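INFO worker-7 received task bundle
INFO bundle size: 2
INFO processing item 0
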Amino acid sequence: MGAMISLPWRTSFGIDPFTSFTLAILLLFIGKGLTQRYGWLRRYNIPEAVVGGVLCALVACGLYYVFDVRVVFDLGARDMLLLYFFAAIGMGTDVRTLREGGKPLVVLLVLASVFMLLQNGLGMAVAEAFGMDPRAGLMAGSISLTGGVGTTLAWTPHFVQTLGIPNAGELGLAANMLGMIAACLVGGPMAAWLMRRHRIVSSGAADVEVGTRYQDEPHLRLDYHGVLLALLWLNLALMLGHGVNELVALSGLNLPAFVGCLMAGISLRSAGQWLAPSGGRLWNWSSMRLGVALISDISLGLFLTMALMGLRLWELEPVLGFIATTMALQVALAVAFTAFVVFRFMGRDYEAAVICSGFGGIALGSTATAIANMSAVVRAYGAAPKAFIVVPLVCGFFIDLINALVIGLLAR
């Protein structure tokens, strides 16, 4: 009598792409409203997109367990939003600043590489303790956490068919789900704690082009021509980025699609400044700067909202024990490494604190969560231009190359 009756119409409920996209906009508004209402969310620099996206994922999980309704969102627009965001990051990058960030880039890359080895060692040790194939722990290591969903899906066939680990995909996706949430929750508070502990003064620079909520800045003016120019050049960056990715793929390397868009954006900004240093009709950075930043900010917020609202938390149940133990240890390792190693080697200053807020995205989540964390921090404390160059390049380009080599050596 007490058993739940599963009616046909209650088994699955699909949300079409347009409705899912519209819901993401609404959730971003909800997240913004809750952040404004509850001071502790602002105090710990929790991104607004995280609040709305996680709330939706929790509601979907409750519907699954209480009413036997499986809500599935069609998130077709999500990946395109990420491409727009990174094209805008590239266009907002001056190569002169990129050269200035050379040493921090190398240092952070070395630190991230060392952390990947620790991350994989921990995952394999926990898997062996649970009586599993130690290599299964790689799916809760750098494959899913540093690599993200794309790397997880790319390596799953090898683990299932070659290594004989049938639930490798579920392990990786579950770890990625929890890692993404953890990365969003620890990044902002980590930066705030470091600034308090070391008595760091913020930059005080108000010119935050990436990660600024321009709807909160009514004194800034956008004009039709500037926004139209921004859309034109961002679309050209996406087209050029696709070509870059195709060329890279010919070499046998598989990199995330946004890497090409980031490189294309940097190239177009450099070419535009060289061809029209004082501005022109089709290239005028001073006119379109705010438009690029606005599109970047909206794209990031909606991407992260959609990524989190699409999490199917109920899929964690079959591997809950292993995943819960592994992820608790992985989060503790990431926090300790960030606070006591990354912060020290990155300079112990404000830029280092902002980079530390993004390191959770490198270590546990994704490049988008890293940038969202840093965006929340710079909105509160001021601009950190080097952080927004170094972290995306480490996350989206170099680290994927090293991760592929590390996984290839361990997953034999």
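INFO item 0 finished
INFO processing item 1
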Amino acid sequence: MNNLDVADLAALAEQVEEVVGRFVRGGLEPVGDAVLVEILTLGGGLLRSIETLLIEGVGEVASRSETGDREARLTSRFGCHDVSELVQRTTRVSAQSASRLHRAARAVDRESSIVTGEKLPARLPAMREALLAGDVGVDGVLAVAGALTALERRVERDAVLAADQALAATARGEGPDAAPPACADILRLHATAWAAALDQDGSEPRERESLHARGISLGQPRRGIVPIRGGLLPEVAAQFQRICDALSLPRGGDDTGGVRFNPDADGAAEGADFVPPDERRPAQRRHDALATALFAAAASGTLPTIGGAAPTLVVAVRESDLLNGRGVVHSDSCSEPMPMGAAHRVACAGAIQRIVLSEDGRIVQIGTEERVFNRRQRRAIALRDGGCIIPGCGVPAAWCEIHHVVEAARGGPTHPDNGVMLCWFHHRFLEWHQWKIRMNRGVPEVQAPPWNDSSGRWRPVTKSRVRLTELLVKRT
């Protein structure tokens, strides 16, 4: 190597390991705030430098492995199938990280001319200089390359180079708005804006490509979970994100905070404002938001019918299992058995039809459908409850399901005095979270979990503006 021995790099690696070890073995708890931020800043710089070395190395490995003679390839000489395998074995990164290094190398690597052997300019020369200067790493390079390299066939080269220079300046903190050095997400935002400005005629081809690529696939159930994969159109993803934002509840992390029940406060029972913490992961919140939207759409009556009926989830369960709370539930729409709770929730939201089978499978009796909570009852319950009755949950009535306080399978009547509004999340995990609900002369009351309220008191809950106004009038 020119003016550099690999032993120097080995010595540097050993020194870095020793210094980092001294920092982390003792723990960072005693470090002051300013020093901790400086540690992160210096660590980020070290990371970008190492990533620069890896990008250059992966680019060179790829260059030496592109020959048509498999035996002459660098990867083959070291017993690897391809560049990704060699990178994974040497750096111990995942296949995804190896692919990211390879894509970054293609964007900033200087390839050799086939004719003269001379090094050619990089596809993004300004970003290459920013990489060598330590201003960007893998994330920054890919944030820019993803937008600009797609323009190469549709936009003049000079225009791409101008965008490359502007984005490199933004990465250094020398952009026109005098903003500090940009992180990868900000670079991606700027790069997307540049791509849209330079390729205004390319929106239609991109739209056709997007329409062709859109899709969602459901995999085979595994351990009670059906895997999902695919891609959404931007406007569909944006709408889904809006639904997620609206239904990411209970609101335990906003600026107002939560007010815990005070068992010693007079009048705390009425209108007590308690916001329990939401311990769901972001991915779980998105799942629950999608479930809420799907079940609300199925119950809306506006979707096309299937076999002359609304698209309703149909489940089958043995009546004895339903009453005993044991066993599993089956559906024609999914091969995976469902938990018994699914039958109770479907009974709350849909219809019950009893079909009696003989021991050998013959249908011996078909009962009539028992509809639950018609539209007039739902409107009345919505007026009384105003939405999900669990304190702190802001899901509105239109997105809620109606829950039988006393289950229909156990003789609970389909009457507003036995129905309350619950969102999809709280309807499914009511018992898991230990919330309890009862009706007191037609008014829903809740008992918070012991870890939220050790008093065990039952408290009326309502979001009806009429009833809240009446309560305020009585107190004044």
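INFO item 1 finished
INFO post-check item 1: DSSP finds 17 helices and 14 strands in the chain.
INFO post-check item 1: The CA atoms of residues 126 and 174 lie 13 Å apart.
INFO worker-7 idle
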